[in-house]
Amino acid sequence: MAAKKNFYPILILLLIGSFLCFSVWSAMRAANMGPQVTDADYYSKGLRYSSTMIEKRAAMVLGWKVTTQLVGRTLEFHLDDKDGHPVRSAKGGLFLYLRDKAASIRFPLQEIAAGVYQLNLTPSMTGEMNARLEFEHDGARLNRQLLLSL
C-alpha cells in the first residue's frame, strides 16, 4: 500500500516564500520610486477638512442654489438661498484647471447685481476645462465641480 503524501508543509513553505518575495518587491519599489503625491498641499488640506465640512453643512442648511449661464465669453452665476432670494456680497472664485498648468488658477468673481456673479473669459480659454466654483458668505461655503466646454 502506498503512503499518502502530505502536501501541507510544501504549501506553507510556498506561502512564506511568496510573502517574503512580495515584501522585498514592495520595499524596493518604496525605496526607488519615492513618494507619489499628486497634491503638494495635501497636509494642509487635510487639516482644514473639518472646518470645510462645517462650512458645507452651513451652505446646505441655508439651501443655497447656484445656476450657471454662459453668455458669449462671460460666465454668469446666480446664487440664491432656499427661499429664492439672492445671496449678496458673497466672495466667489472659479478655480480653472488649465492644460499647461500643474495647479489650478483662481479667478475672482465680480458681483454685478444682487446674487449675480460673473467672470469674463480670455480668448485663450478654449476646449474642455475642469473647474471648481466656490462661494463663501458668513461662514458658509458652497463648492461645485464644473466641466466647461468653450
Rounded to the nearest angstrom, the distance between the terminal CA atoms is 82 Å
- Helicity range of the residues? 25-40%
Cα shape? elongated
The major β-sheet equals: 4 strands, antiparallel
Give the rounded overall mean pLDDT: 84
Number of helices: 3
**Poorly predicted runs of 5 or more residues:** none
- Strand percentage lies at 35-45%
Q: What's the CATH C level of the domain at 52-149?
A: Mainly Beta
Task: Give the SSE order as H and E letters.
Answer: HHHEEEEEEEE
Strand order of the largest sheet: 1-2-6-5
Estimated radius of gyration: 26 Å
The appropriate CATH architecture of the domain at 52-149 is Sandwich
What is the CATH topology classification name of the domain at 52-149?
A: Immunoglobulin-like
- Strand segment count: 8
The SS-based structural class is: alpha+beta
Describe this structure in words.
This protein has 150 residues and is an alpha+beta fold. It has a domain at 52-149: Immunoglobulin-like (Sandwich). Helices cover 31% and strands 36% of the residues. It has three helices and eight strands. The strands form two sheets. It has a four-stranded antiparallel β-sheet, with no helix packed on it. Strands 4-3-7-8 form a four-stranded antiparallel β-sheet. The termini are far apart. The mean pLDDT is 84.
Question: Can you lay out the helices and strands and say which pair or pack?
Answer:
Blueprint: H1 8-33, H2 42-47, H3 49-62, E1 65-71, E2 74-80, E3 91-97, E4 105-108, E5 110-113, E6 116-120, E7 128-137, E8 140-149
Antiparallel strand pairs: 1-2, 2-6, 3-4, 3-7, 5-6, 7-8
